[in-house]
Amino acid sequence: MTAALRSALAARLTCEVRYGEPLSRHTTYRIGGPATALVLPRAPDDVAATLRFAAESGTNWLVLGLGSNVLVADRGFDGIVLKIGKGLDQVAREGPEGSRWSVGAGLPTPILARKSAAAGHGGAQRLVGVPGTVGGGVYMNAGAHGQDFSSCTRVVDVVDSTGALRSLKGTEIGWRYRSSGLDSLVVVGATVELVPGDPVQTQQELSLYLKKRKDGTPFDEPCCGSVFRNPEDRTAGHLIDAADLKGFRVGDAEVSRMHANYIVNTGAATAADVRAVMDAVRERVHDRFGVVLEPEVKLIGFVEGG
Ligand SMILES: Cc1cc2nc3c(=O)[nH]c(=O)nc-3n(C[C@H](O)[C@H](O)[C@H](O)COP(=O)(O)OP(=O)(O)OC[C@H]3O[C@@H](n4cnc5c(N)ncnc54)[C@H](O)[C@@H]3O)c2cc1C
User: Fold this and answer.
1) Residue 306: pLDDT above 50?
2) Of all protein residues, whose CA lies closest to atom 8 belonging to ligand 1?
3) Mean pLDDT calculated for residue range 49-72
């Protein structure tokens, strides 16, 4: 980005912009090269202004939440990264008796799970172990233990690539397994409808599922959650385990010994290391079982052969 474009971008925004920011600081993998510009919007208008600027200047852009489902290339991202977080992280129940909650896209999903469970509202408590934002969760249709965003989301507020703000109904989202039809839109907020119940019971359920998560996955290690989508019939983790790949590593990237569909960064893994492990896993699983594993993790900034 030229100096002229930088100052044109800065002139449009009142929020913070960082140039050359390492994306490793913004991903749960702790991996990723620099973004040309990282915009930290404080309001939907900052998102709209950034997208208008990108459209007019022909600059690439992408949106990140907590970076918990991405692998960013070592070379980084050539363009603007909009990081949806603080400033867009409000959470409020609509009316004292209401079962609808209005949430900002930057709110961490575990906070939504905890706050709603504490109020005795069921429907999001099992998402406590999904360490991303509500915006990323809606976009990915994230879910766990039988709950996902498609089941509770009634309205999604988005900014489109021309910078226009719109509200979409939950039925217009194009939900699929771990994906949605929201490509090229930035989620800035959502309204979720939960089910009033007993606070003690929802809290107990929340604790149970968090414990299960911590006992069964390398939850506290740098990773991106499940790397591959589950194929029909069997889980990706089962296939990778059955291919004797637990502990397989390249550099500091290793197939978790705890859960085979997680590849963890055991120290100073690069994106190239993780890609090399992914390629080896896909090849071995295909050779042994004839199944082609498809990535669930979003690959960012990679070019063919790099
Ligand atoms: C330890 C661990 C456990 C996990 N467990 C689960 C699990 O049980 N179930 C599950 O579904 N996932 C799980 N994940 C993956 C991840 O947490 C979810 O996919 C999460 O919803 C991603 O949210 P994020 O804010 O981190 O998105 P990011 O990783 O920042 O982005 C992911 C994708 O969403 C897009 N995106 C992000 N924010 C927005 C927005 N505001 N508007 C539009 N698009 C956006 C990005 O462009 C990118 O394509 C896990 C990850 C980790 C590290």
Assistant:
1) no
2) 144
3) 97
**pLDDT-derived band of residue 113, with 50, 70 and 90 as boundaries?**
very high
Q: How far is the CA of 286 from the centre of ligand 1 (A)?
A: 27
Domains and CATH numbers, the chain: 3-83 (3.30.43.10), 91-216 (3.30.465.10), 236-296 (3.90.78.10)
293 and 285 in contact (C-beta within 8 Å)?
yes
Ligand 1 pocket (Cβ < 6 Å) reads 28, 62-70, 84, 105, 129-133, 135-137, 139-140, 142-144, 178, 182, 186-187, 219, 223-225, 298
Region 115-125: mean pLDDT is 94
Residue nearest ligand 1's atom 47 by CA: 63
- The answer to whether residue 59 scores a pLDDT higher than 50 is yes
pLDDT at position 232 is 87
CA atoms of 42 and 65, how far apart (whole Å): 13
Beta strands in 41-106 (DSSP E): 61-64, 70-72, 77-83, 91-93, 100-104
Distance (angstroms) between ligand 1 centre and the Cα of 152 equals 17
* CA 209 and chain centroid, separation: 20
- 202 alpha carbon, distance to own chain's centre: 24
Indicate which atom in ligand 1 lies nearest the CA of residue 142.
11
User: Is 90 exceeded by the pLDDT of residue 95?
Assistant: no
